[in-house]
Description:
Blueprint: H1 3-21, H2 28-38, E1 46-50, H3 56-65, E2 70-75, E3 85-89, H4 95-105, E4 110-115, H5 125-143, E5 147-158, H6 163-170, E6 174-180, E7 191-199, H7 209-218
Parallel strand pairs: 1-2, 1-4, 2-3, 4-5
Antiparallel strand pairs: 5-7, 6-7
Helix pairs in contact: 2-3, 5-7, 6-7
Amino acid sequence: MSNRWVNESRRDTWRRQAKEEGYRTRSAWKLRQIQDRYHLIRAGDVILDVGCYPGGWAQVAVELSGEEGEVIGVDLVPCIPVEGAKLLVGDITDIAIQESVVRELAQRPLNVVVSDISPDITGNWSTDQAVSIDLVAKVLDFSLPLLCAGGSFVTKVFQGTGIDELIGVLKEHFSKVRRFSPEASRNASSEVYIVCRNHQPWRTPNISLTKRWEESMSRLDGNESGEDVEPSTVGFRVLKRTETD
């Protein structure tokens, strides 16, 4: 029995379960499994879903936060409405979209930020992986000031150089930072989720998280490819996820 057959069968299982549960995507089960393990979302929570297209994570967030909760989603790609969620179209790194998120919050702090974003893929692994983490850092710079004390943040990143440095920076903001690979992720996938709990804003350094991560990277002797890692400015999500992802 080939590994490819096993992987495809496994993916089909999660797709079937997603369809049976009424979720738009297989990836909805990733957030469900993260929730089952870490219990991040509670009834009444205010949640920001970054990279929300096509809406599977927003569905789970609405389900878990309940009628008293609030879910705000952001993506470059317009998303079919999700009942109970406010979905914005635009780049989360754009000031205008950030202002829209703040207006929607109406001075309510965020309890949880969930992010399933992916960068534009160039085909150069070291570049793509570095940009992935740089993108996460930019999302953090926007969302952390809005996150309540004790709040949680979960994001997808590509495994490789820079993750340990990112985790080191995150530990300056959260008391618990873990890596997690949901069962619903593909066996051959390079993605991993970083789960951060118990936000401690009083520990926040004055310098931005992006800057601190870049400084950590500059102190490395090199990366796995032997090339310099130079984070670049990118839009927040340009990988097309299908409705079965």
